[in-house]
Amino acid sequence: MSEPAIDRESMDYDVVIVGGGPSGLSAAIRLKQIDPDLGVVVLEKGSEIGAHILSGAVLDPVGLDRLIPDWREQGAPVTTGVTEDSFLFLTETGQMRIPNWPMPRFMSNHGKYIVSMGNVCRWLAERAEELGVEIFPGMSCSELVFEGDRVAGVVAGEFGREADGTPGPNYEPGMELRGKYVFLAEGVRGSLSKVAMAKYDLSAGHDPQKFGLGMKEIWEIDPAKHKPGTVVHTMGWPLGSNAGGGSFIYHAENNQIFIGFVVHLNYANPYLYPYMEFQRFKQHPAVRSLLEGGKRVAYGARAISEGGWQSIPKLTFPGGALLGCSAGLVNVPRIKGNHNAMLSGIAAAEAAAAAIAAGRAGDELVEYEADLRSGPIADDLKKVRNVKPMWSRWGMAASTVLGGFDMWTNALFGLSLFGTLSHGKTDAAATGKARDFKPIDYPKPDGVISFDRLTNVAFSFTNHEESQPCHLKLKDPTIPIRVNLPDYAEPAQRYCPAGVYEVIEGEAGPRFQINFQNCVHCKTCDIKDPSQNINWTTPQGGDGPNYPNM
């Protein structure tokens, strides 16, 4: 028996923006810069702007320069310029510096800034509100609203369902926020973006999106070891041939460093444990010596879109558009995406403002698609498009040499001898069978430099209302034990960086348990589950991590 139709109030705007990250906020600001009379609303599922923002981050200010040229005078939290930029290859006990000079100039981090993107987004939100943008944090958007074939709005602010999904005594149905255009700026693997991509077949003719899992800790370290503006990236140990990926160490302000680890999710060995690879990395002598005497103050994790140019889907659909990481605009070799997110928000805003001024509504913003595929974002992504597929096909060493050569030919001549390489299968399909691999013996965390998952999750300040329905939906509840456990040793136990999934042995046999309260909204399960059986949906607004300055 289906649930009766829910009667909801509605509010009308010119543009409805889902997501208070760099792309959504940039779009909101640009819309009001063009026409102060436009009605613009930003809906953010986190408890505040910035609560769900996690990024490295070294920021290329090109997007900020274009959006707010006097950002320095306005006091943007973008102050720590890069002073030293190094790239290291690690062995278990040693390191080798890879020289910077063979790389094209666009790979340099000089002129860039070490930032907390959470704090940058908080500052952008203040600028947006000064311009008259309405911003509603704590408002999860649970559904798209359709009128015929077009997206006409979203349902936001639904609260009070019981664990079984039925409305509870304090149920609030939420509202329909309708717009002439709806921008989906949800970040990687957004739940509404997935719906739009499926309904309008936006990925047709494009490579599947590829992803990485990024885990990050903030440490306060000994001031004697702190070197503001220092940027270090590593590859090699501990991943070796098990997976692609690497680390970052950024010396920010206030004696803090941002230390993180990225594992490409196209790894085959289902016994790989990305979180423990991160913890093992911190035991490298060079890293451990930096952290000793310091303390960890925050932890979080987030999936990263890594497909680049080949994987950008069709960006527009009737009534709306995909922005930022919902579109997959990260430049993997540069380890940057925030600048492209901001540029996409600006481009979408300019297209929507022009359309509304011309009396249009609910159609496709083809001008936005054209701008993105021919403007600065295209220039940034096209010349590095083969580095990721090279790494996946030929490994780290070959891709470092060939990728560098390919980037040079693209930078100098605008062409590639390799053409455009395909990514091939999805990250889920890349998972191998357990019988073909051996379990990996990871060292036990020492509680000083390395930590167990649940201890670290406490430092993400994650909270979910436990009486609500589980937002991690299994399409078939039998698959984890019936298929994934015998075939893949149920990798959800390991790929989740927050300990959400467990296989618990009991008298009646193993059972699959979902501890959704731990979820840090990284979306890895939605991406990596080999059976594609897990659907990540939004929990109640305000739930999830509460990142301080990630």
From TrEMBL:
Keywords in alphabetical order: 4Fe-4S, Electron transport, FAD, Flavoprotein, Iron, Iron-sulfur, Metal-binding, Oxidoreductase, Transport, Ubiquinone
Cofactor annotation remark: Binds 1 [4Fe-4S] cluster.
InterPro entries on file: 4Fe4S_Fe-S-bd (IPR017896), ETF-QO (IPR040156), ETF-QO/FixC_UQ-bd (IPR049398), ETF-QO/FixX_C (IPR007859), FAD/NAD-bd_sf (IPR036188)
EC number: 1.5.5.1
Residues in 4Fe-4S ferredoxin-type domain copies: 510-539
UniProt catalytic activity: a ubiquinone + reduced [electron-transfer flavoprotein] = a ubiquinol + oxidized [electron-transfer flavoprotein] + H(+)
Cofactor(s) the protein needs: [4Fe-4S] cluster; FAD
rRNA processing recorded as keyword: no
Top-rank lineage group of the source organism: Bacteria
A family per Pfam: Fer4_ETF_QO
GO molecular function: 4 iron, 4 sulfur cluster binding; electron-transferring-flavoprotein dehydrogenase activity; metal ion binding
Keyword Lipoprotein attributed: no
PANTHER family (alphabetical): ELECTRON TRANSFER FLAVOPROTEIN-UBIQUINONE OXIDOREDUCTASE, ELECTRON TRANSFER FLAVOPROTEIN-UBIQUINONE OXIDOREDUCTASE, MITOCHONDRIAL
Function field: Accepts electrons from ETF and reduces ubiquinone.
Listed name of the protein: Electron transfer flavoprotein-ubiquinone oxidoreductase
Organism: Paenirhodobacter populi
